[in-house]
Amino acid sequence: MVYREAGIYHTTYAQDARLFPLPADRLGIALLLGAAVVVAPLLGEYWLRGILIPFLVYGLAALGLNLVTGYAGLLSLGQAAFMAVGAYTAAILYGRYGVPVPLSLLAAGLMGALVGAAAGAPSLRIKGLYLAVATLCAQFLIVWTIQRVPWISGGVYATLNIPPVRLGPWVLDSPAEQYYLALVVVAGLTVFALNLVRTRVGRAWQAIREQDVSAAIVGVSLLRYKLLAFAASSFYAGVAGALVVFSWYGAANIEEFNLLNSIRILGMVVIGGMGSVLGSFLGAAFVTLLPIFVSVILHAVAKATGGAVTTDVVANLEHVLFGGLIILFLAVEPLGLAHLWKRLKDRLRLWPFPYY
User: Fold this and answer.
1) Partners of residue 189 on adjacent β-strands
2) Which residues does 330 contact at the CB level (< 8 Å), separation at least 6?
3) Taking the domains of the chain in order of start, what are their residue ranges?
4) 6: alpha, beta or left, given left = phi > 0 and alpha = psi -120 to 50?
5) Phi, psi angles (nearest 5°) of residue 73
């Protein structure tokens, strides 16, 4: 049977079950990927190393956190620590033992998943703020362990450098090549996440998020799916940490995986939209780009005033305005950028007819 929905005809269940059922969505994804492949490397080293690669890394970490917090409803404050597990795993395997990059990436994700599942074990008995405190303890414990075990951290400064990144016969020594590595990994894991949240696993997570007692009554195993949520989330964090080593810094440094970064990643999920794959990347873009725009505007104001606004004032105003804009945005659109984008798409799909 053919039915109509906002000008789009569906004829089969398979068409309706596509990842991108609307032609406009498929066109938009194609244009976005085309720009990412063709245009982005032409932007220069600053854009690649300073903006695009960090955006991909943190977008992947936020996507992992969204699986456990947005879809399963389990609050976690240890995502940066799980990134550290992946980063040091990749640095040790590749730098010390010569394990190829693809296998090091996979091992980093698996080690992150193992540690994340162990850290998520308290979710079987506690939830809400109590679970957040438990994962906060995991954040401190993991960072402390890495810093205090010389075999892992390599010394007092907890920094592990790696040799030039090789992928088969190719040496990835340019920002563009490192960007492509991050892009391929992030794109592949994003497609996997889009499919995962539509499976029985994703539906079980959402049932737990809405009411875990009711989910258990209808046969959802809380033990299995809660630990699976933490494992999947930490797997993505571990791979993101490995990309920090292979595509961004060329080293594993514990200072990059502190509590502030865990809170920052959680902010990306909240701003982008909880329970949304797209929202993870929209939140990462917002948190990555907004401070740059605020800094540029404030420095332009300082220059225009002839030094009346000092550098110290500008630095403090950046933090104040950044926090104020986040609060303003959450007050205006509490469901996140993903919901805002959905509303905009609904308006465009029904245009020129009125939208209620």
Assistant:
1) none
2) 270, 271
3) 1-43, 45-276
4) left
5) 75, 25
E-state strands within 115-263: 159-161, 166-167, 170-171, 251-253
Contact predicate 263/77, CB 8 Å: yes
Q: CA-CA distance, 62 to 130, in Å (whole number)?
A: 21
**How far out from the chain centre does Cα 58 lie?**
4
Q: Are 271 and 337 in contact (CB under 8 A)?
A: yes
Inform me whether the pLDDT recorded for 151 exceeds 50: yes
Number of residues assigned to the chain:
356
Helices (H), 197-250: 200-210, 212-217, 222-243
CA distance 52 to 64: 18
CB 244 within 8 A of CB 87: yes
pTM: 0.89
Confidence band, pLDDT 50/70/90 cuts, at residue 326? confident
Nearest-angstrom CA–CA distance, 325 and 246: 33
Which tokens sit at 307? 């030094």
What does the DSSP 8-state code read for residue 120?
Answer: T
Q: What token pair was written down for 48? A: 């690649």
The answer to whether 275 and 210 are in contact (CB under 8 A) is no
| CA atoms of 211 and 73, how far apart (whole Å) | 9
Q: How many angstroms separate the CA atoms of 109 and 106, rounded?
A: 5
Q: Are 78 and 119 in contact (CB under 8 A)?
A: yes
The C-alpha atoms of residue 110 and residue 108 are separated, in whole angstroms, by 6
pLDDT at 10 over 60: no
Residue showing tokens 């938009």: 28
Which residue, 220, 188, 171, 185, is CA-closest to 72? 220
Each residue's pLDDT tens digit, 67-116:
999 999 999 999 999 999 999 999 999 989 989 999 999 999 999 999 99
Dihedral of CA 292/294/296/299: which sign? negative
SS3 content of the chain, % helix, strand, coil (to 5): 75, 5, 20
